[in-house]
Every structure is written in C-alpha cells, then in structure tokens.
Amino acid sequence: MGSLVDNIIDKIMEQFLEEGSDLIELIIDRIKESNLVDDIIQEVTEAVIEEIVEALTGRDVDIELGDDDDEERILDMNIKTEDLDDTEFGIE
Fold it and tell me: What is the pLDDT of residues 49-79, one digit of tens each?
C-alpha cells in the first residue's frame, strides 16, 4: 500500500512540475509584457539618486524620474560645489 501511495504522489508531483513550468513561463512572459521590471528599476534608481543627493547635500529630496523639475531642483542645490575654494584643489 505504501509503494502505491508513493507512486501516486510521484505521478502527481511529476504532473505538477510539468504544468508548473508552463505556468512559470506564462508568468515570465506576462512580466516581460508589463512594465513591472521597468517600474522596479525606476523606483530603485530614484531611491539611489535620493540617497546620493542627501549624502552630498544633507537635504531630503523626492526624485521622480521623467520629471524635468527634479533636474532643476538638483542643479539649484549644488551649493556645496559652488562654495568650494579653487585653491583648495590647486586651481589658480
């Protein structure tokens, strides 16, 4: 009786794995068709830029890629580099 149950379980698992791979392929195709990966990359990029700006300027910013106002705000915050003395870097 035990081997019969084992065989049934093996067949069920085998069938599930075969159908599961089709399901996985379908999911991957749907993800490729959607903008999910692009959206994730955009969100991560925004977070990294925000952290870099905060580290360099000490200011909290909210970056939204594709928003032209963000670029202008970042350029306006370039206070730190404007205040540097040229002689500090050997520039005369």
Answer: 999 999 998 888 888 887 555 556 656 655 5
The residue whose two tokens read 């910013």 is: 61
Amino acid identity, position 56: L
Name the packing angle between helices 2-33 and 36-57 (round to 10°).
Answer: 70
Q: Which of helix, strand or coil describes residue 66?
A: coil
Cα 47 from Cα 8, distance rounded (Å)? 50
Query: How many helices and strands (H and E) does the chain possess?
Result: 4, 0
Residue extents of the structural domains in the chain: 1-34, 35-87
Largest CA-CA distance found in the chain, in angstroms, rounded: 91
